Fold this protein.
Amino acid sequence: MFKEISIQNLRGIKELKIDDFAQINLFLGKNNSCKTTVLEALYCAINPSNPSLLTNTNIIRGLLNTTKIENINKTSRFSMESLFYNLNTENPLQINSVFNFLELEQEKQNIIITALKDIISSSEKSSSSISTALIEIIKGLNFSFEIIKNKRKKEKFESIQILKEKEIFENKIDEKYLKYANQRNGFYLFSHIANDLINSDLKSKFDNILYQKKEKELIDNFKKLIPEVQAIKFLDAFYIDIGLPKLIRLESLGEGAKKFFVYICRLLGDESLKENSIILIDEIENGIYYDSQKILWKFLFNFAKEKKIQIFATTHSIDCIKAFVEIAEEESKKKEDLIRIFRLIKGEDNVFDISKYNLTSAKIILNEYNLEIR
């Protein structure tokens, strides 16, 4: 599990370090406090040999629209530039992390991401002449990273992502890293993940739940939110049986039910999840009522403890924090270090003030000061 991460020159972060992660972690902060960027750094650190992870974050943010083929090269270049602090591609991105597999096995990982550039000619036409100038453009990213095991054994790797003329991206992945990549994995549940319920990935997770005979577990968990649910079917879309003469579309149950279903389906249906896997959830509270948030947190706490996985989530809702702390208190009676809350405040000159809370200090703040972070 991740124990700490330090970030330099990534999006709105000039420099930031967060340490003492627990099994379940919640990032708080106002808009533009870089909570999502921290999740993206963790996402990249799960498997730094895969350059597509950073590209995926730009697609999730809407910075890279792969459907507009005529503008894909220009859009792709801008999306790569947007990864760099103040769009300055001269300064490399750095993501350093410490990861513990077991109490006695620690792995330190240092990632440096630099911009690969090309020189092209650009012509400007005036009323009397045409002038040509050479300009520098970004054409790809170089991922250079090293792994230090137990402060002794060090190995170095390199992967590259190149923007092609007729293709979107071409990745050259260092195959030597595969022995490490297979040791851990994870996935990113972004805030608008429930917008499209008819997609092949979610359908495959649902099929896998049926194949593993976990349908009852899926329904039992969903019933905690929607007690009337008797069955879930996929025909041309997801349908729910709630005892009416006909099945109803899952979308008709509302945004909170959709999101809760997606979370459960993705977690229960992913065969790749194993011990030390990482789950990242952005704006976890969006569309989910306070009482329903407690149900969701209860499911996530139980799932994390059972599977021995680590969870990182973001929020800017005081109700979400209260639900998180309430469930943490129920689940942490014998394990105080089960949770951490990190409050990110971005000050002048983009310097961060980070406050860290365990369960005891979080309860004191909620009870005595009613911390508001909106």
About this structure: The chain has a mean pLDDT of 86. The CA atoms of residues 254 and 287 lie 8 Å apart.
